[in-house]
Amino acid sequence: MIVSEGKSIGSSSDGVIALMGKAEGKNKLKVSVSLDKNPGYNFLRLTLDYDKEVLTFTGFEEGSALASLDLMPTNVNTPQGYTITPFVFLYGPQNKNDTSTGSLLTLHFTVKKATKAGTKTSVGLKYTTDKEVTYMKGDNTSTPRNPKINYLSIQIG
């Protein structure tokens, strides 16, 4: 499996959320999500974006970044596996911004058995611009941020 950096969304002036991928054996993928630059957030709604025909999302661990915000993953475990909508990081104490950096999430995937060698796919996190990532200004006004987030390009080996 070959994993490399792909396209990105957002602006680095509003923060940087970086994805790094690593193959684990022939059919497993581990994606580390880190918050490398954080000007302050009080709400993030990040939706996992991947090809469900090629990969199966098998779980996640929460990192130490944004620890003052509550993580509310809105996932459902079905007989067919996980279906994931967003990871939502909610307001911290007194609606203050969290400016921590470091590990945000670790995501785990398996490659579906029917996937042919050479298949190309991607994994990323996305959000609705100017709506789903915010920080709190001094006057308690919620203001949008649009952090840069890269996608991973993956070629199945």
Topology:
Blueprint: E1 2-9, E2 11-24, E3 28-37, E4 43-50, E5 55-62, E6 70-78, E7 81-90, E8 102-111, E9 120-126, E10 133-136, E11 142-144, E12 147-155
Parallel strand pairs: 2-12
Antiparallel strand pairs: 1-12, 2-3, 3-8, 4-7, 4-9, 4-10, 5-8, 6-7, 9-12, 10-11
Briefly, what CATH class? Mainly Beta
Number of DSSP helical runs: 0
The helix/strand series, from N terminus to C terminus, equals EEEEEEEEEEEE
**Alpha carbon gap, first and last residue:** 4 Å
Calculate the mean pLDDT score and round it.
84
Low-pLDDT ranges: none
What gross morphology would you assign? elongated
Major pleated sheet? 12 strands, mixed
> Judging by the overall fold, what is the CATH architecture?
Sandwich
Strand content: over 45%
Helix content: under 10%
User: Using only CA atoms, what is the Rg?
Assistant: 16 Å
CATH topology: Immunoglobulin-like
The total count of strands amounts to 12
Number of domains: 1
Helix/strand-derived category reads mainly beta
Polypeptide structure, described:
This protein has a single domain (2-155), classed as Immunoglobulin-like. Helix content is 0%, strand content 64%. It is mainly beta and 157 residues long. It is elongated and about 55 Å long.
Summarize the structure.
The protein has 157 residues and is mainly beta.
Provide the descriptors you would attach to this structure in a database record.
157 residues, mainly beta, Immunoglobulin-like, elongated
